[in-house]
Design a protein that fits this description.
Number of domains: 2
Largest sheet: 7 strands, mixed
Strand content: 25-35%
CATH superfamily of the largest domain: Medium-chain alcohol dehydrogenases, catalytic domain
Distance between the termini: 11 Å
Number of strands: 15
CATH topology of the largest domain: Quinone Oxidoreductase, Chain A, domain 1
Number of helices: 11
Shape: globular
């Protein structure tokens, strides 16, 4: 099969290679996918660049955790009903060496979900990390039906998913964005209201919900913690999956007096049942009225280094995928 890989970490153009590898074969409880599209997330480029200083987890890594394609081979114990089905996958390169930047991939059965008939493989390839992170960020503190949820960074990929899934779950959703041109992305995902994030953010949201909000999905924990605490009701909650500062200061006593709960979310280590439920709810939202993502760039496997650069330094709106 054709595949892309790296055997050392560094700049995309210096370490990514494209060539031939043996076709993988599924083991017990696994399926093989013929990949149609491979999604690229910032986490994939950070792993390649060793942003977190973890080093090479395996001698050779095929990158990308997300993708979509067709099941073309089954391991022992897998129902024959999966053969030939269009699916999307997640966690393909989570604690595993070989991801979706290849013609074929083998994953455990619980790493795939059926691709809804109204969803293209390109859209399916974008769902894994953003969708499952967004779902966990919305639901980790409990049921949001009838509650008010603020999604910070509602025009980002996780933010868009969080908006769509919170709306689908029956919450009132307020999205925040960095600039006015981003408002349409948040509204298209289902936000009831959208607020531009600036020094007046708290007062702008308070004008919409004078009694405060129940839950906040947070993309920039350090930058927004003061405003988040001001906005939350008693017993409110924050679910944060990213921060702009790795060692943030927090308004401890204000958080204590409001009994605020804080959840820090790393998508590789969510409980398996949470990921499975997230996949079900993502499909349900797509089958209802969520349009999914805007695709900004489509590149062939041979141009994976350029694709990684476009993820790190985008030149247009939308996500970047490899089309196989």
């Amino acid at each position: 099969m054709k595949a892309a890989w790296y055997e050392k970490q560094g700049l995309a153009r210096e370490v990514l290679q494209v060539g031939e590898m043996p076709d993988p074969r599924p083991g017990p409880g696994e399926v093989r996918l013929r990949i149609a599209a491979s999604g690229i997330n910032p986490g994939d480029t950070k792993k390649r660049g060793d942003t977190f200083g973890i080093g090479m987890p395996y001698p050779r890594v095929i990158p990308h955790s997300d993708g979509a394609g067709r099941v073309d081979a089954l391991g022992e114990g897998v129902s024959p009903g999966w053969l030939g089905r269009n699916v999307w996958c997640y966690g393909a390169q989570s604690y595993r060496p070989f991801g979706t930047a290849a013609e074929f991939i083998v994953v455990p059965l619980d790493h795939i979900a059926p691709l809804p008939a109204n969803v293209t493989p390109e859209q399916g390839a974008c769902l894994g990390i953003p969708g499952i992170t967004g779902h966990r960020a919305v639901h980790v503190a409990g049921d949001v039906r009838g509650r008010t949820v603020v999604v910070q960074g509602a025009a980002g990929s996780v933010g868009i998913c969080a908006v769509a899934l919170a709306r689908h779950a029956g919450a009132r959703v307020i999205g925040t964005v960095r600039a006015a041109p981003d408002e349409s992305a948040a509204r298209n995902a289902g936000a009831h209201d959208v607020v531009v994030s600036d020094k007046d953010l708290a007062s702008r949201v308070r004008a919409l919900v004078p009694d405060g909000v129940d839950h906040i999905v947070e993309v920039a924990f350090a930058a927004n913690i003061d405003a988040d605490v001001e906005l939350l009701k008693m017993d409110g909650s924050i679910a944060s999956y990213a921060t702009n500062n790795a060692a943030p200061a927090i308004p401890f006593w204000q958080m204590v007096f409001k009994n605020i709960r804080v959840f820090f979310l790393g998508s590789d280590d969510f409980p398996a049942e949470a990921k499975i439920q997230a996949a079900r709810d993502i499909n349900s939202a797509l089958e209802a009225d969520w349009a999914g993502f805007e695709i900004g760039e489509r590149l062939p496997l041979a141009e994976i280094a350029r694709a990684h650069d476009l993820v790190d330094h985008p030149v247009k709106r939308g996500l970047v995928i490899l089309s196989l």
